[in-house]
TrEMBL record:
<dbReference type="InterPro" id="IPR033116">
    <property type="entry name" value="TRYPSIN_SER"/>
</dbReference>
<dbReference type="InterPro" id="IPR001314">
    <property type="entry name" value="Peptidase_S1A"/>
</dbReference>
<dbReference type="InterPro" id="IPR009003">
    <property type="entry name" value="Peptidase_S1_PA"/>
</dbReference>
<keyword id="KW-1015">Disulfide bond</keyword>
<dbReference type="InterPro" id="IPR043504">
    <property type="entry name" value="Peptidase_S1_PA_chymotrypsin"/>
</dbReference>
<feature type="domain" description="Peptidase S1">
    <location>
        <begin position="37"/>
        <end position="259"/>
    </location>
</feature>
<keyword id="KW-0378">Hydrolase</keyword>
<dbReference type="Pfam" id="PF00089">
    <property type="entry name" value="Trypsin"/>
</dbReference>
<protein>
    <recommendedName>
        <fullName>Peptidase S1 domain-containing protein</fullName>
    </recommendedName>
</protein>
<keyword id="KW-0732">Signal</keyword>
<keyword id="KW-0720">Serine protease</keyword>
<comment type="similarity">
    <text>Belongs to the peptidase S1 family.</text>
</comment>
<feature type="signal peptide">
    <location>
        <begin position="1"/>
        <end position="20"/>
    </location>
</feature>
<dbReference type="InterPro" id="IPR018114">
    <property type="entry name" value="TRYPSIN_HIS"/>
</dbReference>
<dbReference type="InterPro" id="IPR001254">
    <property type="entry name" value="Trypsin_dom"/>
</dbReference>
<keyword id="KW-0645">Protease</keyword>
<dbReference type="InterPro" id="IPR050430">
    <property type="entry name" value="Peptidase_S1"/>
</dbReference>
Amino acid sequence: MVLVQTLVFVGILCPIYVSSEFYSSADPEAREDWERIVGGTKAANGSIPYQVSLRFWGVWHFCGASLVTPRVILTAAHCVDRLNPKYIQAIVGTNQLRAGGTAYTIRKIVQHEDYDDDVIKNDIAILFTEKEIEFSSTVDAIELNDEPVERGEDLLLTGWGTTSYPGRLPNDLMQLELKAITYEECKEAHKNINAVFESQICALTKAGEGACHGDSGGPLVREGRQIGIVSWGIPCAKGKPDVYTKVEAFMRWIEKTLYDDDQDHVKFLNKRKTNRH
């Protein structure tokens, strides 16, 4: 699993790059990478019930996302920037890109009003489905994190991002264990590359492990609660921290966006939080 795209092209290269992969011829060395993420392992079937694959016309995976209520999906703004929702479907309930799952059409996209693709700030968006998503043993919402994350905490990243850069998408959902680092450490690591903001969170293990094309928009999780959304990084797994939109920093925006669409969305979030306590 390796990250998004080069900094200049975040928001436009992701869907074009990924969809074109389905037409690329494969060489033997590339095939060897299909079955593994960079430094990661296959996720067990049904173990990540909140994982969503965003696809053009329900076919070409271009970004990850997460299910947060029966009709609400969370992803990165750069994944859906300037996209018409009628061309997108959300696939849930499968760990394979080429088999299984249920497709849901998208009714509306709400991108953060202050999303800035020049510096990759406020990289968050919400998708509303036309129909309510049916929950099951392999489909369920994830609770959103509203508490600080400390340095060194164990995190879990999942996605169908390419296993090398450049590379092709694996069929199987992959997972990777990471460690949270501080804002100051992340800012220092990227000081000559791109700005890092306090509304972002960073994670790292070592060179050879990280996120890549196709992982964008996917969930970063701590103990079953989503703390981040894959935003940007240096393609791919080069030993620099990957940068995620910090869910905690956008909880008010998320709740307002959901409330403005339908109060039941927020009631669902609050019920999940109450049940945890």
